[in-house]
Amino acid sequence: DLRSHFGSRSLLTPRQQGEGAPRQPRLPGSQRRRQMSSLKFREEPKGQVKLARESLQILKQKPDDKDVARETSKLVFTADPVKKFAGKGHWFELRVEEFMGGSLSLMALGYTSTDPGSLAQVEEGEEPPPCPAHPEQVPQAYVAGYARSAFWDGERIEIEPIFEEVKPYKIFTIGALATLGGVLEIYINRRLVISIDGTMRGMSAIDTDTPLWAIVDAGGGLKKATLLTDSVPPSPEEDAGSPVPEE
Protein backbone atom coordinates (compact mmCIF):
# COMPACT_ATOMS: atom_id res chain seq x y z
CA ASP A 1 0.00 0.00 0.00
CA LEU A 2 2.03 2.96 -1.28
CA ARG A 3 1.26 6.18 0.46
CA SER A 4 2.02 9.63 -0.77
CA HIS A 5 3.72 12.38 1.11
CA PHE A 6 2.29 14.60 -1.63
CA GLY A 7 -1.27 13.31 -1.32
CA SER A 8 -3.52 12.74 -4.31
CA ARG A 9 -5.42 15.19 -6.43
CA SER A 10 -6.45 15.74 -10.00
CA LEU A 11 -3.79 17.50 -12.06
CA LEU A 12 -5.65 18.12 -15.28
CA THR A 13 -7.71 21.26 -14.73
CA PRO A 14 -8.69 23.55 -17.61
CA ARG A 15 -6.03 26.08 -16.63
CA GLN A 16 -3.41 23.36 -16.34
CA GLN A 17 -4.01 21.76 -19.74
CA GLY A 18 -0.61 21.35 -21.30
CA GLU A 19 1.31 22.63 -18.27
CA GLY A 20 3.97 20.65 -16.46
CA ALA A 21 5.31 18.38 -19.19
CA PRO A 22 7.02 20.16 -22.08
CA ARG A 23 5.04 20.47 -25.29
CA GLN A 24 6.29 18.65 -28.34
CA PRO A 25 6.79 20.69 -31.54
CA ARG A 26 3.58 20.75 -33.56
CA LEU A 27 4.08 19.28 -37.00
CA PRO A 28 2.21 20.30 -40.17
CA GLY A 29 -1.16 18.58 -40.43
CA SER A 30 -0.25 16.17 -43.24
CA GLN A 31 2.99 15.13 -41.56
CA ARG A 32 1.24 14.76 -38.21
CA ARG A 33 -1.41 12.50 -39.75
CA ARG A 34 1.28 10.28 -41.26
CA GLN A 35 2.83 9.87 -37.82
CA MET A 36 -0.43 9.32 -35.94
CA SER A 37 -0.61 5.81 -34.56
CA SER A 38 -3.67 3.62 -34.16
CA LEU A 39 -2.15 2.26 -30.95
CA LYS A 40 -4.56 1.83 -28.04
CA PHE A 41 -4.96 -0.39 -24.98
CA ARG A 42 -6.76 -3.71 -25.18
CA GLU A 43 -9.80 -4.61 -23.12
CA GLU A 44 -8.69 -8.15 -22.30
CA PRO A 45 -6.61 -9.22 -20.64
CA LYS A 46 -6.27 -6.29 -18.28
CA GLY A 47 -6.17 -5.82 -14.54
CA GLN A 48 -8.40 -3.70 -12.32
CA VAL A 49 -8.22 -0.59 -14.45
CA LYS A 50 -10.81 1.19 -16.56
CA LEU A 51 -10.10 2.32 -20.10
CA ALA A 52 -11.51 5.62 -21.35
CA ARG A 53 -11.19 7.92 -24.35
CA GLU A 54 -11.45 5.13 -26.92
CA SER A 55 -9.07 2.92 -24.92
CA LEU A 56 -6.29 5.51 -24.88
CA GLN A 57 -6.59 6.40 -21.20
CA ILE A 58 -5.92 4.31 -18.09
CA LEU A 59 -8.02 4.98 -14.98
CA LYS A 60 -7.00 2.89 -12.00
CA GLN A 61 -9.81 1.47 -9.89
CA LYS A 62 -9.72 0.67 -6.21
CA PRO A 63 -9.77 -3.05 -5.39
CA ASP A 64 -12.92 -4.39 -3.77
CA ASP A 65 -10.94 -5.88 -0.90
CA LYS A 66 -8.08 -3.80 0.46
CA ASP A 67 -6.54 -6.90 1.99
CA VAL A 68 -5.79 -8.32 -1.45
CA ALA A 69 -4.82 -5.04 -3.11
CA ARG A 70 -1.27 -6.19 -3.69
CA GLU A 71 -2.42 -9.38 -5.39
CA THR A 72 -4.86 -7.54 -7.65
CA SER A 73 -3.55 -7.09 -11.16
CA LYS A 74 -3.34 -3.57 -12.53
CA LEU A 75 -1.60 -4.49 -15.77
CA VAL A 76 -2.70 -3.22 -19.15
CA PHE A 77 -1.34 -4.04 -22.61
CA THR A 78 -1.58 -2.40 -26.00
CA ALA A 79 -3.93 -4.05 -28.48
CA ASP A 80 -1.29 -4.09 -31.21
CA PRO A 81 2.51 -4.15 -31.30
CA VAL A 82 4.23 -0.80 -30.77
CA LYS A 83 5.61 0.99 -33.81
CA LYS A 84 9.29 0.54 -34.60
CA PHE A 85 11.01 3.75 -35.70
CA ALA A 86 13.85 3.51 -38.18
CA GLY A 87 17.24 4.03 -36.55
CA LYS A 88 15.67 4.26 -33.08
CA GLY A 89 13.63 1.23 -32.03
CA HIS A 90 10.19 0.66 -30.52
CA TRP A 91 8.74 3.69 -28.72
CA PHE A 92 5.59 4.68 -26.83
CA GLU A 93 4.84 7.53 -24.43
CA LEU A 94 2.20 8.35 -21.80
CA ARG A 95 1.05 11.62 -20.27
CA VAL A 96 0.59 11.10 -16.52
CA GLU A 97 -2.25 13.36 -15.40
CA GLU A 98 -3.10 12.13 -11.91
CA PHE A 99 -0.86 10.31 -9.46
CA MET A 100 0.02 9.97 -5.84
CA GLY A 101 3.39 9.09 -4.43
CA GLY A 102 6.80 10.65 -4.05
CA SER A 103 9.86 9.07 -5.61
CA LEU A 104 9.06 5.45 -4.76
CA SER A 105 6.95 3.68 -7.35
CA LEU A 106 4.40 5.59 -9.35
CA MET A 107 4.06 2.98 -12.07
CA ALA A 108 6.06 0.66 -14.29
CA LEU A 109 6.23 0.31 -18.05
CA GLY A 110 8.07 -1.55 -20.74
CA TYR A 111 7.56 -4.24 -23.36
CA THR A 112 6.71 -7.87 -23.90
CA SER A 113 7.15 -10.04 -26.97
CA THR A 114 4.32 -12.26 -25.73
CA ASP A 115 1.08 -11.54 -27.57
CA PRO A 116 -1.29 -10.43 -24.77
CA GLY A 117 -4.13 -12.15 -26.59
CA SER A 118 -2.49 -15.49 -25.83
CA LEU A 119 -2.85 -14.77 -22.11
CA ALA A 120 -6.64 -14.63 -22.43
CA GLN A 121 -7.20 -17.68 -24.63
CA VAL A 122 -9.75 -20.17 -23.30
CA GLU A 123 -11.54 -23.25 -24.49
CA GLU A 124 -15.21 -22.91 -25.36
CA GLY A 125 -17.33 -22.69 -22.23
CA GLU A 126 -14.41 -21.87 -19.92
CA GLU A 127 -13.97 -18.71 -17.88
CA PRO A 128 -11.10 -16.48 -19.06
CA PRO A 129 -8.03 -16.69 -16.83
CA PRO A 130 -7.25 -13.71 -14.60
CA CYS A 131 -4.82 -11.14 -15.91
CA PRO A 132 -1.29 -11.75 -14.61
CA ALA A 133 -0.77 -9.79 -11.40
CA HIS A 134 2.82 -8.81 -12.20
CA PRO A 135 5.04 -8.50 -15.29
CA GLU A 136 7.34 -11.22 -13.98
CA GLN A 137 4.44 -13.61 -14.68
CA VAL A 138 4.42 -12.57 -18.35
CA PRO A 139 7.02 -14.37 -20.52
CA GLN A 140 9.57 -12.16 -22.27
CA ALA A 141 8.51 -9.00 -20.41
CA TYR A 142 10.98 -6.16 -19.75
CA VAL A 143 9.60 -3.56 -17.35
CA ALA A 144 11.05 -0.79 -15.16
CA GLY A 145 9.65 1.75 -12.71
CA TYR A 146 9.17 -0.11 -9.44
CA ALA A 147 10.97 1.03 -6.28
CA ARG A 148 14.62 0.33 -7.17
CA SER A 149 13.53 -2.59 -9.35
CA ALA A 150 13.15 -3.66 -12.95
CA PHE A 151 12.03 -7.08 -14.16
CA TRP A 152 13.82 -8.69 -17.09
CA ASP A 153 12.09 -11.80 -18.41
CA GLY A 154 11.13 -12.85 -14.89
CA GLU A 155 14.37 -11.81 -13.17
CA ARG A 156 14.57 -8.85 -10.81
CA ILE A 157 17.24 -6.22 -11.48
CA GLU A 158 18.11 -3.57 -8.92
CA ILE A 159 18.14 -0.06 -10.37
CA GLU A 160 18.21 3.50 -9.14
CA PRO A 161 14.82 5.19 -8.54
CA ILE A 162 13.58 6.88 -11.70
CA PHE A 163 10.88 9.21 -10.31
CA GLU A 164 13.03 11.41 -8.06
CA GLU A 165 12.73 14.44 -10.35
CA VAL A 166 8.94 14.22 -10.72
CA LYS A 167 7.29 17.28 -9.18
CA PRO A 168 4.11 17.00 -7.09
CA TYR A 169 0.92 18.06 -8.86
CA LYS A 170 2.76 18.49 -12.19
CA ILE A 171 1.69 16.64 -15.30
CA PHE A 172 4.61 14.78 -16.85
CA THR A 173 5.29 12.42 -19.71
CA ILE A 174 7.02 9.06 -19.50
CA GLY A 175 8.16 6.99 -22.45
CA ALA A 176 9.87 3.67 -23.08
CA LEU A 177 12.29 2.96 -25.91
CA ALA A 178 13.42 -0.56 -26.80
CA THR A 179 16.53 0.32 -28.77
CA LEU A 180 17.73 -1.57 -31.83
CA GLY A 181 20.40 -3.10 -29.58
CA GLY A 182 17.78 -4.53 -27.21
CA VAL A 183 18.28 -1.99 -24.40
CA LEU A 184 15.33 -0.58 -22.42
CA GLU A 185 15.47 3.19 -21.99
CA ILE A 186 12.99 5.17 -19.87
CA TYR A 187 12.42 8.88 -20.52
CA ILE A 188 10.63 11.40 -18.31
CA ASN A 189 9.63 14.67 -19.94
CA ARG A 190 11.61 13.58 -23.01
CA ARG A 191 14.87 13.15 -21.07
CA LEU A 192 16.61 9.84 -20.50
CA VAL A 193 16.52 8.81 -16.83
CA ILE A 194 17.73 5.22 -17.04
CA SER A 195 19.12 2.75 -19.56
CA ILE A 196 18.99 -0.99 -18.81
CA ASP A 197 21.13 -3.39 -20.82
CA GLY A 198 20.40 -6.98 -19.90
CA THR A 199 23.54 -8.27 -21.59
CA MET A 200 25.64 -6.37 -19.04
CA ARG A 201 24.14 -8.67 -16.41
CA GLY A 202 24.50 -11.92 -18.32
CA MET A 203 20.92 -11.81 -19.59
CA SER A 204 19.58 -11.69 -23.11
CA ALA A 205 18.84 -8.45 -24.92
CA ILE A 206 15.28 -7.54 -25.89
CA ASP A 207 14.61 -9.06 -29.30
CA THR A 208 13.54 -5.99 -31.24
CA ASP A 209 13.23 -7.93 -34.49
CA THR A 210 9.99 -9.43 -33.17
CA PRO A 211 6.71 -7.59 -32.45
CA LEU A 212 6.69 -5.88 -29.04
CA TRP A 213 3.56 -4.93 -27.12
CA ALA A 214 3.59 -2.15 -24.52
CA ILE A 215 2.88 -3.18 -20.95
CA VAL A 216 1.95 -0.74 -18.17
CA ASP A 217 1.54 -1.57 -14.48
CA ALA A 218 -0.64 0.94 -12.62
CA GLY A 219 0.02 -0.81 -9.31
CA GLY A 220 1.89 2.13 -7.78
CA GLY A 221 0.73 5.72 -7.44
CA LEU A 222 -0.58 6.09 -10.98
CA LYS A 223 -4.26 7.09 -11.16
CA LYS A 224 -4.74 8.41 -14.69
CA ALA A 225 -2.54 8.38 -17.78
CA THR A 226 -3.15 8.82 -21.50
CA LEU A 227 -1.36 7.21 -24.41
CA LEU A 228 0.17 9.81 -26.76
CA THR A 229 -0.57 8.42 -30.20
CA ASP A 230 1.45 11.03 -32.10
CA SER A 231 4.62 10.69 -30.01
CA VAL A 232 7.98 10.03 -31.65
CA PRO A 233 11.29 9.13 -29.93
CA PRO A 234 13.08 12.11 -28.36
CA SER A 235 15.67 13.88 -30.48
CA PRO A 236 19.24 14.39 -29.20
CA GLU A 237 18.36 18.06 -28.68
CA GLU A 238 15.44 17.17 -26.42
CA ASP A 239 17.40 14.60 -24.45
CA ALA A 240 19.63 17.04 -22.61
CA GLY A 241 19.69 14.94 -19.44
CA SER A 242 22.03 12.16 -18.39
CA PRO A 243 21.01 8.57 -17.71
CA VAL A 244 20.92 7.41 -14.11
CA PRO A 245 23.85 5.02 -13.71
CA GLU A 246 23.06 1.43 -12.83
CA GLU A 247 24.62 -0.26 -9.83
Keywords:
247 residues, mainly beta, 6-stranded antiparallel β-sheet, 1 helix, disordered C terminus
Tally the helices: what do you get?
A: 1
Helix content: under 10%
Which shape, going by the Cα principal axes? globular
Mean pLDDT: 81
Low-confidence stretches: 1-19, 25-36, 242-247
Q: Which class do the helix and strand fractions yield?
A: mainly beta
| Rg of Cα set | 17 Å
Main beta-sheet annotation: 9 strands, antiparallel
Oligomer: single chain
The number of E-state strands comes to: 15
**Secondary-structure element pattern, one letter each:** EHEEEEEEEEEEEEEE
Task: Report the β-strand fraction as a percent range.
Answer: 25-35%
The CA-CA distance between the termini, in Å, is 27 Å
What do you see in this structure?
The protein contains one helix and 15 strands; from the N terminus they run βαββββββββββββββ. Strands 1, 2, 3, 5, 6, 11, 12, 13 and 15 form a nine-stranded antiparallel beta sheet that branches. A six-stranded antiparallel beta sheet has the order 4-14-7-8-9-10, with no helix packed on it. The N terminus and C terminus are likely disordered.
Give a nutshell description of this structure.
With 247 residues, the protein is mostly beta strands. The protein is 3% helix and 31% strand. It is globular.
